Structures are given as structure tokens and as C-alpha cells.
Prior knowledge:
Elements: H1 4-15, H2 37-49, E1 54-57, H3 78-85, H4 87-90, E2 93-96, E3 100-103, E4 108-111, E5 121-122, H5 126-134, H6 146-155, H7 176-190, H8 200-206, H9 215-227
Helix pairs in contact: 1-6, 2-3
GO cellular component, one term: cytoplasm
InterPro entries: APS_kinase_dom (IPR059117), P-loop_NTPase (IPR027417), Rossmann-like_a/b/a_fold (IPR014729), Sulf_AdTrans/APS_kinase (IPR050512), Sulfurylase_cat_dom (IPR024951)
Domain Sulphate adenylyltransferase catalytic: 1-154
Amino acid sequence: DVDHYTRVRCYKKIMEKFPEDTAMLNLLPIAMRMGGPREALWHAIIRKNYGCSHLIVGRDHAGPGNDSNGKPFYGPYDAQEMVQEYADEIGVEMVPFKLMVYIKELSKYMTIDEVPEGKTQLNISGTELRRLLNKGMDIPEWFTYPDVAKELQQSHPPKDCRGFTIFFTGLSGSGKSTIANALLVKLLEHGRRRVTLLDGDIVRINLSSELGFSKEHRDLNIQRIGFV
């Protein structure tokens, strides 16, 4: 999932593509409950209270996913049906949103049930998008605006650009420092990332100077190192 701040930055980039004075971004400080159709209805009521006349309800809106048997808790359009059922009472018109696919030959998006026969359909699932981000691969321009793709890439750098920790444990004199220093040299030779070595002496002086060698203190020392 995309975190809140990345999502808002993406929204702002998308807003720049709208004609001036035709759209407004308003953030609603409410967390998802994953309550399915009832949450969709709740969303409609809240939007009405904020002055909205329409609500876009997507496929499996607020869906909690699958149960322990791998079956969806709700149908893909149950939320749309519930909001539509109470639309007049609430005073909000439900705008259904079906699965959209990109038609290569026409260079545009269409709902999946409107695609002409024989046309090439392109789509990227959430799983595929995460794979592209994790591997540092380009996100196609037909999928999203380049500015939006850049925001996603900055928030989800590929794995070879992320930090990681290697924690050596063992008895005194077992060779932890020897192996750690050898690995340090190899990583520095690689030259693609900064490397920091926290050896025992550094930890004892700067992190655990007041600790002794009781089991309680040894456990606390490991806990502190793990936190760092």
C-alpha cells in the first residue's frame, strides 16, 4: 500500500494535469476500516455531510480481502449495490467505477466491458507495480503520469538502493569482528552504498557503557543493538 504522504504528493501531481479551477483537493482525516459495503455507505454519508453530491465507488470498495479459506468476504460490486440502494435517502449519487484497461491500439483507457474485440488490453496490478518498484524498473507512461511515477519511485526505491543490517552474534573470540571487517571491505569495494560498522568496542563505549555481564544486561545489550 502507498503511505499517506506519498499518496497526497501523487494527488498533487495529478491535480496539476486538470484545467485550472476545475478541481480541488480536500483531505479527509479518516482511516479505512476495511468494512466492505457498509463502510462504502458510511463514506457516502460522510461525503454528504461535507457537501458532496457524488461519490465514486470502486470495485470491492473498502474490501477486507479474502477469508481464511481464500474466498472474498464480499463480491466485487456489493459496495456499489448497497450505496446505490440508499442513494436517494442519503442524497448522494453513486458513480460506479469498473475495472479500467488501457487499449494499446486506441491509446486510451476503457472499462473492461467496453473493449472492442481483438484489441490489446494492458493493465498493471498492484502486485506488478510493487515488482517494478522493487526492481527499479520503469513504470510505463500509459499507466500513470511520469511525475506520479517519480514520486512512487522515490518512496519505494529498489531493494539494491535500500539499507540493510547484518547482525553477527556468537561467543567472545568466535570470529565475529574478523568476518565483519572482511565483509566491510567487500561492501566498500562494491562502492554503491555507505557502510557503517558497529563493532563490540564501539557499542560498549557509546551504547552500553553502564551494562555489566549479567544475563539481564546481556539481553538488554542485544536489544539495544537490534534497535539501532
